[in-house]
Amino acid sequence: MLDKNGIAKRIAKEVKDGYYVNLGIGIPTLVANFVRDDISVEFQSENGVLGMGPFPFEGEEDADIINAGKQTITTLPGASFFDSVTSFGMIRGQHVDLTILGAMEVAENGDIANWKIPGKMVKGMGGAMDLVASAENIIVAMMHTNREGESKLLKKCTLPLTGVGCVKKIVTNLAVLDVTPEGFKLLEKAPGVSVEEIVKATEGNLIVEGDIPEMDI
Amino acid sequence: MIRKTVANVEEALQGVKDGMTFMLGGFGLCGIPENAIAHLVKMGVKDLTCISNNAGVDDFGLGLLLHKRQIKKMISSYVGENDEFERQMLSGELEVELTPQGTLAEKCRAAQAGFPAFYTPAGYGTEVAEGKETREFNGKMYVLEKAFKADFSFVKAWKGDEAGNLIFKGTARNFNPAMCGAAGITVAEVEELVPAGELDPNQIHVPGIFVQRIFQGKNYEKRIEQLTVRKSN
């Protein structure tokens, strides 16, 4: 079974040379730490920066340079700053190649819910609705089950939706799955995890064909 | 040259009244109009509708207006990080309209640029699209979203000149440019106000035509919400 860093490490393998990538808050942010050094990738943050670098050294932080998680960041050579309209033009206009975000629930048809739990939590959708409505290539990074042990890969989402039919790939602590017209297709299992465990942790339709390889991370 | 300078925040906020709708720039606490917010608190105007991506934190930014119960309605995309906000929202004291972030930005720009409405794919099939017109273009579904209408825009820039031209720094730009010229009166506060001619026209982010009043701000705190650093070797 993977921890959060393991999930990030596996997703980093999906990041290809020449990609512009938007990373959501949480596990997705960790992906930047595992992208290969020999490829060229630029990270976009929707608050208005392309070419994000690592966190600043102590004392070098600048209140005017943050990411969408409001964390202080640095920029790399070739970086640019822009306003929110331009930023979402990049997103809506499909100029960003890959979007990686977290989720509370994903359904077997690719629906995603990640912004609201009625009566309990309403933080808002931020840029998530714009991202999932426009991105061609969306990977969800999340735990396979919630704290109560219930599956987060469902037949149908129970929470208010963020987007419909948009998720293409999911990487969890247990598995890598594609979202297909027939449901979740199991592609890889995490080290030390059996197919049976994945079947048990998945409420939505799960397609298992042939031998399922273990993730190479 | 048409002069846009006013002496201070008091003069800049003349005409602000109870029940008005404001646009306020900033992302989190980055690039917020600190002086305008502080003066709105001091004026005690109430029943305000505020369009702002976030709602500040408990003791800074728009949190200061929330604390004094001056805001009737918030239009935002993300409102976490603010306990007082959550309390007022869950108790029904505060009306909240959550809008996808890109849609929020575009609703400002539409107001600035003279578009009554626009189609966006964001929120299609979700509760955000409920009651709104939808339409298919090239096999994809879109939601019709309308331009904002506001009485004042309060924006914060790094540098500005007497003609109202603005230059922003880093990610403090965010929603500020789209809000300029998107309300009846745009008030810009700047860290450094210079005479006309001192800023390079090639480097201007917002031309002065979109700004009605500009003043030199004071005592910027520029609070950091999430300080994240690496240890130096």
Automatic annotation (TrEMBL), chain A:
User: Does the keyword Hydrolase belong to this entry?
Assistant: no
Q: Listed GO molecular functions?
A: CoA-transferase activity
The cross-references to InterPro entries, in alphabetical order and at most eight, read:
3-oxoacid_CoA-transf_B, CoA_trans_fam_I, CoA_transf_AS, NagB/RpiA_transferase-like
Taxonomically, which superkingdom? Bacteria
Q: Which Pfam families match?
A: CoA_trans
Q: Does the keyword Transferase apply?
A: yes
Segment forming the signal sequence: none
- Which keywords appear in this protein's UniProt record, sorted alphabetically? Transferase
Into which family does the record put it? Belongs to the 3-oxoacid CoA-transferase subunit B family.
Name the UniProt record assigns to this protein? 3-oxoacid CoA-transferase subunit B
**Organism of this sequence:** Arenibacter palladensis
From TrEMBL, chain B:
Reading the lineage from the top rank, the first entry is: Bacteria
For this chain, one GO molecular function annotation is: CoA-transferase activity
Which segments of the protein form a coiled coil according to its record?
A: none
Query: Does this entry carry the keyword ATP-binding?
Result: no
Pfam families associated with the record: CoA_trans (PF01144)
Q: Which SMART domains match?
A: CoA_trans
Question: What PROSITE patterns would the database entry show?
Answer: COA_TRANSF_1
| InterPro entries referenced in this protein's UniProt entry, alphabetically | 3-oxoacid_CoA-transf_A, CoA_trans_fam_I, CoA_transf_BS, NagB/RpiA_transferase-like
Keywords assigned by UniProt, alphabetized: Transferase
User: Which family does the entry's similarity section mention?
Assistant: Belongs to the 3-oxoacid CoA-transferase subunit A family.
List the protein's name.
3-oxoacid CoA-transferase subunit A
